[in-house]
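Entry 14. Ran structure prediction on the chain below.
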Amino acid sequence: MYGTVARLQAKAGAQAKIAALAREMRAVEIHGLVADYLYQVDNVEDVYYMAVVFETKAAYMANANSPEQDARNQRLRAILVADPEWHDGEILSVE
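Output, structure tokens:
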């Protein structure tokens, strides 16, 4: 499996927008997507971590390079203070 972990800092007061966008994105059927998680950091209102899991690196890269994903990323970026900090990699352990 392959995926990414991202740190996101939302604009002040955008909590409802980021939650709604996460729900909307979850409804999209993406080839090879296994799971995605959005965490809100305790005691830091506008900081989130997102973890996304794909079956393979090829499926991840195909999605990452698609125009549809670029459009989703642009919508996400519009409610963030700065670009997400992406950390891609091979998933070594799964429960």
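The domain at 2-90 is CATH 3.30.70.100 (Alpha-Beta Plaits). Will compare against last week's run tomorrow.
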